[in-house]
Fold this protein.
Amino acid sequence: MTNPADKTILVVDDEPDVRTYLEVALKDAGFNVITAQDGLDALERLKEKVPDLISLDLVMPRKTGNKFLYEMRKNKEWSCIPVLIVTAHSRDEMGKGDLDEIMQNMTLSGPGVIEKPVNARKYVNAIKTILNIEIADEAEDPVAMKQALQEKLMSADKETLKKALEAFGKK
């Protein structure tokens, strides 16, 4: 059985907060993660290590996701790496044209596209689906547990927050 610890994901996104969010979600799920801030940086990361999957934003400075894919597909070693598009622009003029072009010119494995804002569990499960990794039951999934805990804490009152801190050994 394939294990997330045996897989490396390249996360390409120009927004530092989004890049960190996606990186943490993947690391929480057990994956090895490499990051890049745009398509140009991602090409450099590919020269250092070939990942098992690329999580790719479309709209970025210096080299867009579409231009990165074009360059990547020219290299025989890189051309078979599965790609998951993660974008906030799948339906607007900034990204729709690029996404349509990508969908016409290449085959994306599995879900293919995830729209921002990203749900961590859905993101990790999409990557697991593409890589043929078993998806854990939600009750056993650390990403799902962390997300559920964060949601509970965000809506908790002062007394509940105090109890939670006590449970974690903090006063």
About this structure: The beta strands are 8-12, 32-36, 53-56, 83-87, 113-115. The helical segments are 16-28, 39-48, 65-73, 96-105, 120-130, 142-154, 158-167. The mean pLDDT is 83. The chain has seven helices and five strands.
